[in-house]
Amino acid sequence: MAELTKMIRPGSVAVVGASAVEGKIGNTILKNIISSGFTGVIYPINPKEKTVMGKTAYSSVSEIGEPVDVAVVAVPAARVPDVAEDCGKAGVKNLVVISAGFKETGPDGWELEKRLLGSCRRYGMRMLGPNVVGLIDTHTPINASFAVTFPQQGEIAFFSQSGAMLVAILDWSAGAGLGFSRVVSLGNKADLSEVDFIEGAAADPNTKVILCYIEDIVDGRRFLELVTKAARKKPIIIFKSGISQAGAQAASSHTGALAGNDLAYEVAFNQCGVIRARSMTQLFDLAVAFAKAPAPKGDRVAIVTNSGGPGIIATDNVENLGLQMARFTKETIADLRANLPAEAGLYNPVDVLGDAKSDRYKLALQKVLADPNVDSAVVLLCPTGVTEPLATAEAILTVHKSFPEKPLFAAYMGGESVAEGADMLARGGVPCYTFPEPAIESIKGLVRYNKVLSAPADKDSAALKDIDRNGVKAIFYDVIRDQRLVLLGGEAAAVAKCYGIPAAPIIMAASPREAVAAAEQVGYPVVMKVASPKIMHKTDVGGVKVGLKNAAEVSEAFDEIMDNVHSYMPQAVVYGVEVQKMMPKGDELIVGMTRDVQFGPLIAFGLGGIYVNLLKDVKFRLARGLSSREIELMLRETKAYTLLRGYRGEKPRDIKALVDVIKRVAALVTDFPEISELDINPVFAYEDGMGLAALDIKITIS
């Protein structure tokens, strides 16, 4: 953090590649630093010049002979590693490598980037880049970039993996009147990444909201750890473009097939409190909302409009986003009835009618915001022949000052005729949009973040008991020694037992006689399944027999299973037949895991059995640090939860036992990263106090 602070607020900066020639990157960077009002010492580095822009030039950073906080490097890529070596020897602690031509160009560039990173590691330097536009802090102030625009001072921190996106936003912001606290181009993220700058911005008193445009996350575990903490200090809004490769590698299990490419990012953002934007437009709509509006106390929204259609659209949007339309008190309705025309709508949305002027808007909004059942409000205005956009904006701002604790948004639906009023609202602290949807989405973002702040600390203090890690290691050792990656049913059940997961007993049988002995040991009735790692769908090849009640049926079933398998799949290696205790019928659920490249294991829960792929009623959470509270929230998000609570007179199921099983599965897949996929389908859920039974367990290791 100390080094990052010096990078953002340096006392001295060296520009390697500084040039007096207009049009060169080194010229633009040096000019930007000077013109930004930077008050520290600036050292141009150019071995061919004595002075650059009136400042003494040096042939190298080491020639300066004074401490340098940041070296901004803008020379051809091939020279950058040598420059980094010189900076390291000179004691520089921070590099901003503008130069492109590294891993983004292919194998040769990748090797060059590794050399550069090696120099940074060797000398303890932190590096932004390579391949970046640079960094800007409007409060330092410093503009160590080659961007054309130096933004106005504000409270929004913006970090972008795309340099082109960053300069476009800066150019747009000048006309939009949007201010920034700091802007950072992330580039190749060879060393410093969005996580480092999010952590720094969360501690920055000049930053109120943090925005990110990212294309990937390199260290998912570190992202979760640090961003979860940062999100409790400042709202973090991320627009993630592209799709993750996680989940695309293996989809042999139900869980792997259900986990979409982008799912891990969605789950990770939700769990660590990040608000996800779905477009660049929404990213900055939310930024404006968080910069200007207070946190609402709840999710009850009121709408004041002069047109019925937009009011209906806004109402639909409120409900579609999971917010609540505020229900006014009797006093509010009586006041509105007494002061508005008889034709006006009184019950939310409040329709002040198309002939409403500023005084009618002011009265209606005053009554609405004073209502204790209203947490936030949206004012809609459509231009008519008598509408007063500017005077109405003044009225809205006047009312807003009386209720500063309640978020207020506006939608001025029109063009040139309402532009002046919309601009007045925006400058006065009331975010104003062209249509209602962005306003409602912004309120949703505020409500979502309020829940992040109000959520209790998400940690379980008690560690799981009765876990046999060595037992699991021994089973995996035997599987790998047998040159397999897929565990047999009995092996998977044994792994489950090691972690206290209640699995139906299974015994392997190599002959009809052994099958009968196994059935008598586990107890009738039994289920019999072929044991072969190559046969994923055993029923399809006649490899399953159920409801066997005596020795004769078991003996006959063994022979039938073996005959069927040899007929359908003569090349399959068969280890025998597994004899499993047939458990009492319960609600069929699935608990599974698939492993994400960035964020590690993802736990799935939902309806199981034949309904898995049919209904796809499955929700996911990250396994690492998964708490009982988060598991319960996951259960509540599924349709299966309705059954678990007791549906149509049925008794509730053992939810406590289910939470415990999911927590144990999460511990198992976290402790053993070699587990690439795991499915327990079905899990039978019984009445409260009666526990669960895991019937069919599939485990694949890497």
Notes on the structure:
By secondary structure, the chain is α/β, with parallel strands linked by helices. Helices cover 40% and strands 21% of the residues. The protein has 24 helices and 30 strands. The strands form 6 sheets. It has a 7-stranded mixed beta sheet, sandwiched between helices. Strands 15, 16, 17, 18, 19 and 20 form a 6-stranded parallel beta sheet that branches. Strands 25, 26, 27, 28, 29 and 30 form a 6-stranded antiparallel beta sheet that branches. β10, α5 (163-176) and β11 (179-185) form a beta-alpha-beta unit. α3 packs parallel to α4 and α17 (469-481) packs antiparallel against α18. The protein is flat. The model is unreliable at 244-259 (pLDDT under 50).
User: What's the main sheet like?
Assistant: 7 strands, mixed
Fraction of residues in β-strands: 15-25%
Low-confidence stretches: 244-259
Radius of gyration: 32 Å
Break the fold down into its secondary structure elements and pairings:
Layout lengths: L1 H7 L3 E5 L8 H11 L5 E5 L5 E2 L2 E2 L13 E4 L6 H10 L4 E4 L9 H17 L2 E3 L5 E4 L4 E4 L6 E9 L2 H14 L2 E7 L8 H9 L6 E6 L5 H12 L4 E5 L13 H5 L4 H10 L2 E3 L2 H13 L7 E6 L2 H13 L3 E2 L4 H10 L10 E2 L6 H13 L5 E6 L7 H14 L5 E5 L3 H12 L4 E2 L2 H19 L14 H13 L7 H10 L7 E4 L2 H11 L3 E6 L12 E5 L2 H18 L7 E6 L5 E10 L3 E8 L3 H5 L2 E5 L5 H9 L3 H6 L9 H17 L3 E11 L6 E3 L2 E5 L1
Parallel strand pairs: 1-2, 1-5, 5-6, 6-7, 10-11, 10-12, 12-13, 13-14, 15-16, 15-17, 15-18, 18-19, 19-20
Antiparallel strand pairs: 3-4, 8-9, 8-11, 21-24, 22-23, 22-24, 25-26, 25-28, 26-27, 28-29, 28-30
Helix pairs in contact: 3-4, 6-7, 7-9, 10-16, 11-16, 12-13, 13-14, 14-15, 17-18, 19-20
